[in-house]
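I would like you to sit down with the record closing this message with an eye to the fold:
=====
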Amino acid sequence: MLNIRLLREQPDYVTERLRVKNFDAAEIIRRINTLDVARRNSQTELDNILSEQNTLAKEIGALMKSGKRDEAEVAKSRVASLKEESKSLEERMNRSADELNELLVQLPNLPHSSVPAGKSAEDILNV
């Protein structure tokens, strides 16, 4: 399976190398890169939400110790909504990752630079 980083950084190179195998990968690579961006954005957003949850959890403890129960309850409701949001984000991220993997396995490995263009070995012999 091709490395996602190669597809992200050198999509034209991969497309050209696979064209040697008579495989048009441009659309698959475009979809892979779109899904990769969506997955990485979801991961960043999820990380931010989890960080906020942790911060609020610490604040809730401090508020409870100082007797500010009303403020603690507000923070608890915010944590509950963040948990729902994080669940939704995680599901979206997992769907993107699954679809990304399905596309990645459709791409063949890159042929060696010495491989000439053609559909099969017979094409090479007829040159």
About this structure: The first helix runs from residue 4 to 9.
